[in-house]
């Protein structure tokens, strides 16, 4: 048995080492593979990933950054077809833009024992402009089948020497083989920043490079015909090379309640620290958070825009002259900006067209809206400052980098604490920022150029209070009325879902969510009164809520509200559990029992608690005459739970779900 196992391992290793990763050299063995040996559930896998990023000297442009990509992917299932479309983002700014070229791509299939390849044609390549900062090239591979292998290679040339895309070493599918390298001339000093749980150790070496500079000289023509002579000179320099070689990298799979899975994938970032050309002074970029803040603050699209006031003074004077109360002034200005200027969906820490144009056109990016808000608050006498934020999709800014922040909100510093404001969302309220901004900490930037970190999470819990008064019928139907009150983030999320959708579609979705419930007399209060909880109420009828066996009735007193499954299924978790914000829920349920029945079995009341006061679940049930009364209080006191508590959290949810599913047994009198 051991000899056979050892033989199979040796054969697998020999087969792996024998793979040819030259472009176009796809093997029959690769095409015959039915499942991935690293992960039998994988829909696809990278057989090989290659990336080389280096600096190339151009006589006209100077140094440009070139990235060469070669990837080979095996498709195991139809779900793996998602990996047969590749999207390449190309940055642009003013007249500069990245250029995509040298695309070659093939699909390989094994048909009757023969390898058949099909070349990607022009009809499978699509170029588009995503926005004023991004173009995109997208290509979709032809003739895809389960078992296909695709491979492609291309080149991107970029004039943005400080903008190096991350080297990503982990994806949501396995990687068999990965090779990558980054080469930079000695004139550019880059910081190497790592993230993720996978150990990646680069090989570092110094190589020699050479630049050939062509020169031409034209005679003055006084001593004869005008002549042009050409000459060339060489400049030798050193280049720093870091290279990576990995094999058998497991997939990084999405899990419930993860802020941004890319925060935890293994990757290397190269951040330009400084530039030092021969006989020139050093030009620093970002080495500390102070440097980052200074660079951002000194940008005309930040500091100067923040100082402009003439375009709004008349409007704000008319708005606030009737009150001297600072909080009332702040509220009036906040609501004025929210209703006056609409967010265009663009993220950025700098303004685009400027605050004056955004105010006039009544549309702008987040920086224009919230820098404008900050300026107005200052004009009204409040101690207001901008706050730099990294949104959830941008990742957590662990290191001081210029790309670490991509968004701006506003803060008012008072003797009672800081009030955070974001006027891009019409449903946001003070200290209740849009969920996209809830990402650890922001950095408040003051007029004197000083900065400090500030938590973006609210101290007050978001509440969800559900009251149900219902009658249970002998046939198992449930009739009654429900009222739901929501505050803070629960309210903001509800308003976004309800007010931004068709009302009939919303009701249909609600009825389906509750198992075919019939809803009548539906009403929503305070839908736009953001200072009060949003209130939803309706009457309902729901069939089949009871199991009838002989002369007994079995049902859960939570009925359609009980949690169906535990979201935490992994044995071990390396990432924090991110609930977004702290919350509390209260369920108060009163049910009239059907006539002629009495309670035979009732669940016990119980209290479940997470360690270190992270959360608690209180289940209190009683029988009063012919009524069953259930009160449940569930609290999650922390927005983010460390992975060291994962086992306790998983067990907590398991016991909670088990408790919610416990049944009451009624028997005929």
Sequence of strands across the biggest β-sheet:
6-5-9-2-1-11-14-13
Indicate the CATH class of the largest domain.
Mainly Beta
Give the count of helical stretches: 11
Q: Per CATH, which architecture of the largest domain?
A: Sandwich
Strand content bin: 35-45%
Q: Kindly state the percentage of residues in helix.
A: 10-25%
Shape: globular
Number of strands: 37
Q: Biggest β-sheet: count, sense, barrel?
A: 8 strands, mixed
What's the pLDDT, averaged over the residues? 92
* Low-pLDDT sequence parts: 1-18
Q: Structural class of the helices, strands and pairings?
A: alpha+beta
Oligomeric state as shown? single chain
Question: How far apart are the termini?
Answer: 66 Å
Radius of gyration: 31 Å
The CATH topology of the largest domain is what?
A: Immunoglobulin-like
Q: What is the total domain count?
A: 3
InterPro entries: Transglutaminase-like (IPR002931)
Keywords: Signal
Protein name: DUF3857 domain-containing protein
Pfam families: Transglut_core
Features:
alpha+beta, Jelly Rolls, 11 helices, C8orf32 fold, 42% strand, Immunoglobulin-like, 3 domains
Q: What would you note in describing this structure?
A:
The chain is of the alpha+beta class and 669 residues long. It has 3 domains: 26-275, Sandwich (Immunoglobulin-like); 289-455, C8orf32 fold (Roll), CATH 3.10.620.30; 462-668, Sandwich (Jelly Rolls), CATH 2.60.120. Helices cover 18% and strands 42% of the residues. It has 11 helices and 37 strands. An 8-stranded mixed beta sheet has the order 6-5-9-2-1-11-14-13. The chain has an 8-stranded mixed beta sheet with strand order 26-27-25-24-31-35-34-33. A 5-stranded antiparallel beta sheet has the order 21-20-19-22-23, with helices on one face. A hairpin with a 2-residue loop joins strand 34 (615-624) and strand 35. Helix 4 (300-307) runs parallel beside helix 8 (366-379). It is globular. Mean pLDDT is 92; it is low at 1-18.
